[in-house]
Amino acid sequence: MVDSIRVALLGAGTVGSQTARLIVEQADELERRVGARVELAGVAVLDPSQISDPWIDRALLTDQTLELTERDDVDIVVELIGGLEPARTFVLSALNHGASVVTANKALLAKHGPELYEAARKNGVDIYFEAAVGGAIPIVRPLRESMTGDRITRIMGIVNGTTNYILDEMTTKGLDFATVLKDAQAKGFAEADPTADIGGFDAAAKAAIMATLAFHRDVRMDDVHVEGIEHVTDSDIAAARAMNRVIKLLAVVEQDSENGAISAGVYPVMLPADHQLAKVSGSFNAVFVEGEASDDLMFYGRGAGGAPTASAVAGDIVTVARHRVAGTTGPDIPLYSQAPMADAADGESSYMLRLSVADNVGVLAKVSEIFANHGVSIRALQQLPDEDEQGNHELWITTHSVTDRVIRETAEDVAQAKDTSSVLSIMRVFEDAQ
Amino acid sequence: MVDSIRVALLGAGTVGSQTARLIVEQADELERRVGARVELAGVAVLDPSQISDPWIDRALLTDQTLELTERDDVDIVVELIGGLEPARTFVLSALNHGASVVTANKALLAKHGPELYEAARKNGVDIYFEAAVGGAIPIVRPLRESMTGDRITRIMGIVNGTTNYILDEMTTKGLDFATVLKDAQAKGFAEADPTADIGGFDAAAKAAIMATLAFHRDVRMDDVHVEGIEHVTDSDIAAARAMNRVIKLLAVVEQDSENGAISAGVYPVMLPADHQLAKVSGSFNAVFVEGEASDDLMFYGRGAGGAPTASAVAGDIVTVARHRVAGTTGPDIPLYSQAPMADAADGESSYMLRLSVADNVGVLAKVSEIFANHGVSIRALQQLPDEDEQGNHELWITTHSVTDRVIRETAEDVAQAKDTSSVLSIMRVFEDAQ
């Protein structure tokens, strides 16, 4: 008979603090849900003197993290430090000392996940990480359990709130990227070093985790093709708007139904303005999951923030605590698939290219010929009336479906023809309605 | 070491047939996910000679259901018969003989759920029912596990595809209820006896299940206040459209943050046309969940249909099979809350009333006085220019928030004033943006 489940918290930032609050404020409720008292056993932080949350007993604070992860009386270690090291060392220490782990650390899982899952399995403990993807949104558990009787074909989502906020602001206020980023940083919606977010790396980590769960294959950060939003200009946004489209940074993972190859990518995409993902605004996240039998599912909610993320962490704590009380663990993460990773250059999509072309007779014919030479079929073409200072016009070309490799080669040839044309931007266009 | 998990299927209709297909066609995949072979042990149907699905081995067919549920070599009984009896007898037989149960039977769970959960707990087996609410949408597992570290405040959803389809057709095609119902029946989107759907009872069963999981209290079908769509007229639809609103049948369960009282209801509601639920069309379902920490979450997908529902059933089979292999069970469903059920008459909402009023001086004053006498504050009032054959005009009144009791009393007084006015319809209006 287990009387209490003792939880060690690593990190007491916005998520850690809210997690502590949920555990302490809901102690009676959680006890009845779990069948044992859920208590904080310790809270490890860099500087205990900086912590003043009323729900964190100061006697529990320590800066000796490894002492906490090694303690025999700790059942669950909740890692909310983020980053690769020392988080990885702490998580492994916890698992190897017989504690289950709850973590929100997508970077760690996207880099070392399979080793950590194996360490948990070997030690007969749990590792749960609902908060690592989509903040408050239950997406990990549905992929890990609810959909395991089906064949997932594709997952497509907005999984980074910072970039979604920035693109949103650029779209609704007509501001340029640098201005919006600066404002987002001032408001705390973007980090001082925003590279992980705007470079697409945070979304890529989440893509790797989702692909691993969906396709039962070891997919890492390095397997994900990443393009961020740093090159998205206000002119791209204006062009999208003129075409009744919206630009979103999407994480897309899919498995080819014919050859089984898995692809995982993060890139800005132009979506029809009435697409469900086009309407996901600000810091909200949304994930579409397509299954062979389930058809389309969508999960939507707050992708970040202290309390929302803590909601997911606390749900994992309750789940893992119940397992400890029952003397069991949840399902492990079976990674049996040997499916190949697709080459990102083979990925197919429609594209929109913004070109700058000289205003002379024959330039359209020349550009069209370059596209034709590469076998790229043009779906729509539009030349803007306005001239720039050099007397050039913008030319917008939307293609039919073509591989990434071919569109890059085509764009290179267009860029070569310097006397007549240059490439302003290339962006994927998804037209399938949702 | 468990070599195989043997599954008995009760019922081989559209969902049963697709469940069998997923098990048989994905046998190798499921074996690697579960760690043991998942096999059909038997398929009980009323008339085995009627079954011709290529993936169901004819040797497995039987019409002796209890022989199947009592067999020692059956690990999981999948109940897809529906209805109260004999489904309840079969499920209890399975649980009492040591088999875990997977069911999609919302009517059974809304009526006898807590007894069945207790029977499962007592016998040390699982009862899983993801498909009972929202078809393919993972909503049961998120409520049962993901959100158990948070306090759920409200759930609001479109959980019946038939009524959503009918209201959709009435809205987009301007047809009346009877015409659309007949067409839906011809197309197989509505049952020959459509009472359970259009009367709101199917949605009410789902509301009871969601309330039970969310609030940890025994909430049954009889606790749910039910209004169907059978009285929704094309005039109501037209009035909604004129106000830029859409009529949806919603299941709403909530817990009062002050007195803890739980309310559960199903009723047609006018939503702003740009509300996320307003855009859920046809047979799709969508469920909003509001948590204290998580904030708004939305789950969206196919609420019915053979393959989508089978996706949820198969996910439960895998989950339960993994538990059998590990010699454990999932969390039980703790129903510790003694919170009172709120009286539906105390439920507050804005309302829209459509009245028919005589075209004479003073009628507006008289109607306004009745509302004022009941303390009902009018937010908007609109008199239509057109006269009917009796020379009466339609008067649309939208109120501020008021209890159901008071609006009914007010409407009764309006109806009493027969010489001047009568009540055409009363409907809730939700204005809060999502």
UniProtKB/TrEMBL annotation, chains A, B:
All residue ranges annotated as the ACT domain in the record: 352-428
Residues annotated to bind NADP(+): L10, G11, A12, G13, T14, V15, G16, S17
Chain residues that bind L-homoserine: E191
GO molecular function terms attached to this record: homoserine dehydrogenase activity; NADP binding
Residues at the catalytic site: K206 (proton donor)
Highest taxon, organism lineage: Bacteria
Role description: Catalyzes the conversion of L-aspartate-beta-semialdehyde (L-Asa) to L-homoserine (L-Hse), the third step in the biosynthesis of threonine and methionine from aspartate.
Catalytic activity of the protein: L-homoserine + NADP(+) = L-aspartate 4-semialdehyde + NADPH + H(+); L-homoserine + NAD(+) = L-aspartate 4-semialdehyde + NADH + H(+)
Swiss-Prot/TrEMBL GO biological process terms: methionine biosynthetic process; threonine biosynthetic process
Name of the protein in its database record: Homoserine dehydrogenase
Entry-linked PANTHER family: HOMOSERINE DEHYDROGENASE
Family annotation (Pfam families): ACT, Homoserine_dh, NAD_binding_3
EC number(s) reported in the record: 1.1.1.3
Family that this chain belongs to: Belongs to the homoserine dehydrogenase family.
Names of the cofactor(s): a metal cation
Binding residue positions for NADPH: K106
UniProt pathway: Amino-acid biosynthesis; L-threonine biosynthesis; L-threonine from L-aspartate: step 3/5; Amino-acid biosynthesis; L-methionine biosynthesis via de novo pathway; L-homoserine from L-aspartate: step 3/3
Principal EC category: oxidoreductase
Keywords, in A-Z order: Amino-acid biosynthesis, Methionine biosynthesis, NADP, Oxidoreductase, Sodium, Threonine biosynthesis
Origin species: Alloscardovia macacae
